[in-house]
Write a structure and sequence with these properties.
single chain; alpha+beta; OB fold (Dihydrolipoamide Acetyltransferase, E2P); Chloramphenicol Acetyltransferase
């Protein structure tokens, strides 16, 4: 009987996804390890691989189908000797989660370990040319204006991967853009302009899987987590001076770093959670969870929405380590290359909009966490010191709190500890 290929769970919390693109056609042979399809989850576009050999007998789910439930049959694989007559019964059989389900490849675009001799990227199949490339390679080529049909892939079966794009750009390859569908994971292309009487002209952009998940989770957060907000002003002149001095002393090359204000914010928040552990908590229906480690989720804007890579054990890491780890995580987040464990499971969140000149804002909680710190821009303000007016660089920070978990006094204690660390940055180095 034909083997059912099932919709895989690409992360512990995934319940459904979008089948963005089939990489195999009906009648095409499949070997173990071959990429079968591109699946769009709430955070990234990933490839799934075959674990069995055979021939694609029937594709049960069309490209572009959204909301495909995990463990739903998406295709049928014919083993040697099986014919198409057995497909009808297999398509209607109950799904059987087993070893035959496809496996998640590394986040789309990870370079293969073994590199066969480069082959042409365009393959001839069913009378049509198809360029075989990873999702990341397609995005990079689209951004750089490279024509993938002119490149030779070093991946399996001539597949174009990230290193091929980087090599082409390093050689100054010509970049004639060609009309093509949007890269997987990119924002959906708007429909044609609609004009109705009495309404301004508009376009409709279909929701991506990520946007749907963001909408659902944040709606649940506002409805189910009773928020309250407290704000504190921090003087950061000493922090800015320490940052400048530390960056001036940074070694070049390996072991180097370039500290940002956000790196100090992450470190200060982590140390404040250590001083006030009751703020490092989340709610469950059975108990309040008090975490023994400060795993800081940091909001990073990406083309389709927002993702929160996690600095694990930030209370036990120095500024340089936090800085370099954050830069690396943010870069891979924008490329769609984060693993689920790198953006899930944080205990406390930070959202910094200071780089946009935002003076002060209140962030929505990142469930199931009990608190999130919203950081505004540092700006010069008039303050009173010892009865006289003075000028200081002040940064407003607002803590959004789940009142079921953290009471007002605990939130205030956390912000007091955070303010002391921010205003005396040398204490972060102890």
């Amino acid at each position: 009987m034909p083997t059912q290929i099932l919709m895989p769970a690409l992360s512990p919390t995934m319940t459904e996804g979008k089948l963005s693109k089939w990489l195999k056609k009906e009648g095409e042979e499949v070997r173990a390890g071959d990429a079968l399809a591109e699946i769009e989850t709430d955070k990234a576009t990933m490839e799934v691989e075959a674990v069995d050999e055979g021939t694609i007998g029937k594709l049960l789910v069309a490209e572009g189908t959204d909301g495909v439930k995990v463990n739903t049959p998406i295709a049928l694989l014919l083993a040697e000797g099986e014919d198409a007559e057995s497909l009808t019964a297999a398509a209607t059989a109950p799904p059987k989660p087993a070893h035959s389900a496809p496996q998640a490849a590394a986040p789309a675009a990870a370079a293969p370990a073994a590199k066969p001799a480069p082959q042409p990227a365009a393959e001839r199949g069913n009378g049509q040319d198809r360029v075989v490339a990873s999702p990341l390679a397609r995005r990079m080529a689209q951004q750089a204006g490279l024509d993938l049909a002119n490149l030779r892939g070093s991946g399996p079966h001539g597949r174009i991967v990230r290193t091929d794009i980087e090599a082409a750009l390093a050689k100054g390859a010509p970049a004639p853009p060609r009309a093509a569908a949007a890269a997987p994971g990119a924002a959906a292309r708007p429909a044609a302009m609609v004009e109705l009487p009495g309404t301004a002209p508009y376009q409709e952009v279909p929701h991506s899987s990520m946007r749907k998940i963001i909408a659902r989770r944040l709606t649940e957060a506002k409805q189910q987590q009773p928020h309250f907000y407290i704000t504190i002003d921090c003087e950061i002149d000493a922090l800015l001076k320490a940052r400048q001095e530390l960056n001036a002393r940074a070694p070049e090359g390996k072991g180097g770093y370039k500290l940002s204000v956000n790196d100090f914010v992450i470190r200060a928040a982590a140390l404040a959670l250590r001083k006030v552990p009751a703020a490092n908590a989340s709610w469950t229906e059975e108990a309040v969870r008090l975490y023994a480690r400060a795993d800081i989720s940091v909001a990073v804007a990406i083309p389709n929405g927002l993702i929160t890579p996690v600095i694990r054990g930030a209370d036990h890491k120095g500024l340089a380590e936090i800085s370099n780890e954050m830069k690396e995580l943010a870069a891979r987040a924008r490329e769609g290359k984060l693993k689920p464990e790198e953006y899930q499971g944080g205990t406390f969140s930070i959202s910094n909009l200071g780089m946009y000149g935002i003076r002060e804002f209140a962030a929505v909680l990142n469930p199931p966490q009990g608190a999130i710190l919203a950081v505004g821009a540092g700006e010069q303000r008039a303050i009173v010191k010892e009865g006289a007016l003075a000028i200081a660089t002040v940064m407003s920070c607002t803590l959004s709190v789940d009142h079921r978990v953290v009471d007002g006094a605990i939130g205030a204690e956390f912000l007091a500890a955070y303010k002391k660390l921010i205003e005396d940055p040398l204490t972060m180095l102890l």
